[in-house]
Design a protein that fits this description.
The protein is an alpha/beta fold. It is built from twelve helices and eleven strands. The strands form two sheets. It has a six-stranded mixed sheet, sandwiched between helices. Helix 5 crosses helix 12, helix 6 crosses helix 7 and helix 6 runs antiparallel to helix 9. The longest helix is centred in the last third of the chain and has 27 residues. The structure holds 5'-O-[(R)-(carboxyoxy)(hydroxy)phosphoryl]adenosine (KG4) and zinc ion (ZN).
């Protein structure tokens, strides 16, 4: 029997096995992470080596630098994940890895590490879409949470509203027609000369500011679940440049706060409307921008007004981490999905 045939048989057996331990690898951007998760929900370890400090001096992620640092970190992170979980390699049932979307050189480090490990241990390899991982971050944060629900997916690379009908049955209700919301946060932060990554800095600074500038979001998409953030981003950038040229002094906190208020109104209004549209009384936020304190405040309040239950991942699972990838892989495996062969490679863009 050839290698992949043997893996198919092992994968099929896993679907019916009582306890399944998955080791997962995440390296799509600037976090190197390895986690070990039992039965999709019990996080035995989740080790994250962040490169934020390294990229900060460049004002953003430098892909080549990210790949090199993943290579340097991954073996140690793997050892640490096993130590922390107090298990041996031989107890792992499957290896999961983010294969996309992300920086292709960065993804390749994780994918090649995962392939070599799965091959050495002779266990199945599961290829996970990063966005599915962000959704699953809620399963490890809220052990009772199960589909169906509506998901507001907000990260540096994605902005979407999804109807999650079943663990692996998603329907896209709306998406961004231009920039991802995290990209807009980072760009606005950059023009305000705040350190990378900009999202958390805007969140912090906004608390000292007032919503005094009317940076509008075009209402051409108001009857849809789609988003557009490039207009408001450009409006802020032009506003700052115009005032700088005139030598005016500006309140960065007021600009940050005004931008954040408009963006979080747009996201929270459409998410609630989507719940009403599909008749769903559970709303889940996912992705790095889901860490935004104002967004969570608004979602929570609007959910309460509309008798909708609201869920957000705990902070450590909100931004990139491997535990969420193992959780997504578990539910993929239960549905017979995601088994990969040794020709798996990193993909910069993947469909939801
Ligand atoms: O999900 P994530 O870690 O990586 C991607 O898959 O893209 O998201 C990163 C994005 C960045 O744009 C970062 O600025 C943003 O999430 N972010 C935030 C906050 N924390 C992270 N944006 C707004 N407020 C925050 N507190
Ligand atoms: Zn992410």
């Amino acid at each position: 029997m050839n290698y992949f045939q043997r893996m198919k048989e092992k994968f099929e057996k896993l679907r019916h096995q009582k306890d399944v331990i998955i080791l997962s690898v995440e390296s799509s951007c600037d976090e190197t992470s390895v986690a070990i998760v039992k039965n999709g929900r019990e996080v035995l370890s989740n080790i994250i080596a962040s490169q934020i400090e390294i990229h900060r001096r460049f004002g953003g992620v430098v892909p080549e630098v990210a790949s090199r640092n993943h290579i340097m970190a991954i073996s140690n992170i793997f050892d640490e994940a096993l130590d922390k979980a107090k298990i041996t390699k031989e107890q792992i049932d499957a290896v999961a890895v983010t294969y996309g979307a992300g920086l292709v050189g960065a993804l390749l480090v994780g994918v090649n590490f995962a392939k070599a490990l799965a091959y050495q241990l002779d266990i199945p390899l599961i290829a996970v879409n990063h966005v599915h991982g962000h959704i699953a971050a809620n399963y490890i944060s809220h052990l009772q949470l199960k589909p169906p629900f509506v998901c507001l997916m907000v990260s540096g690379g994605h902005t979407a509203i999804l109807e999650i009908k079943e663990y692996e049955d998603f329907k896209l209700l709306g998406t961004t027609v231009d920039d991802a919301v995290g990209e807009a946060f980072d760009k606005v932060a950059r023009v305000l000369e705040l350190p990378y990554p900009g999202g958390p800095e805007i969140d912090k600074l906004s608390k000292e500011g007032k919503n005094v500038y009317n940076f509008t979001i075009s209402n051409s998409l108001k009857d849809t679940f789609n988003f557009s953030f490039s207009g408001i981003k450009t409006a802020v950038v032009n506003f700052v440049h115009n005032h700088e040229q005139k030598g005016d002094s500006l309140s960065k906190a007021d600009i940050a706060c005004s931008f954040q208020e408009h963006v979080t109104d747009e996201l929270s209004d459409k998410a609630i409307r989507a719940c009403r549209y599909v008749g769903q009384n559970k709303l889940v936020v996912a992705g790095g921008v889901g860490a935004n304190s104002r967004l969570k405040e608004k979602l929570k309040a609007k959910c309460e007004e509309n008798a909708i239950e609201f869920f957000a991942p705990v902070l450590q699972f909100c931004t990139d981490n491997a535990a969420m990838i193992a959780s997504a892989a578990y539910y993929m495996m239960k549905n017979g999905l995601g088994l990969a062969d040794l020709d798996l490679t990193g993909k910069p863009n993947v469909e939801l």
